[in-house]
Amino acid sequence: MVQVTKTCWKCSHMAIMTCCSRLHPATTDHNGTIHNLRSNRAVLEKTMGSEGSDLFVKRKPRILCLHGFRTSGEIFKTQLKKWPESVHEKVQFFFPDAPFPCNGKSEVEGIFDPPYYEWFQFNKDFTEYENFDKCLEHIEDLMIKHEIDGLMGFSQGAILSAALPGLQAKACSSLHNQNFC
Question: Where is the Serine hydrolase domain (predicted)?
């Protein structure tokens, strides 16, 4: 028997799981909701053992990289290529495009090739936002699909990267069901 402390990535609820020779990738939290869990000690990934049994191995942390306003995941990836190789060896980066095509002129036009995307739209006074809930749903889907361990962003992507932990701490329910007033 192995006892492992896990943390729910959605609500930060701590759970102690007792397992016999394998770890379970999900459990229910204090509200009965099923969540994916991460080990506090290392990032573990389930793989097939030599005799068909489950085997868990340490893997690189996965970082979701959210690009800037009216750019793209490919542009952000190009910008980060200048980072030292030692960083790229230790971390796995994911560079998705925002869910909405560019709705206006991009400041990087002529420097980087299109297409360009934006995470959400806003008015000139930054007092009204459109598609913010759809943006959060898109990011949540990416986090689940790629089993993301952290966020990094530039410009509009940095706004989201900074806001998401606060929105997450606000309540345990899914981010796209929150009232962001």
Answer: 59-171
Residue 147, SS3 per DSSP: coil
CB distance 124 to 145 below 8 Å: no
Backbone φ/ψ region at 130: left (φ over 0), alpha (ψ -120 to 50), beta: beta
| CATH 3.40.50.1820 boundaries in the chain | 62-177
- Phi then psi for residue 19, to 5 deg, are -130, 155
Give residues with Cβ within 8 angstroms of 29, minimum separation 6.
8, 10, 11, 13, 15, 35, 172
The gap from C-alpha 33 to its chain's centroid, in whole angstroms, comes to 20
Beta 62-66 vs 92-94: how paired, if at all? Answer: parallel
Contact between 40 and 7 (Cβ < 8 Å): yes
d(CA 71, CA 117): 5
May I ask the CATH class of domain 62-177? alpha beta
pLDDT along the chain (181 residues), means of 10: 42 41 40 43 54 68 96 97 92 97 95 97 91 93 91 95 84 44 34
Tokens standing for residue 63: 């970082």
DSSP-derived pairing of the beta strands 121-122 and 117-118: unpaired
Cross-strand bridge partners of residue 18: 3
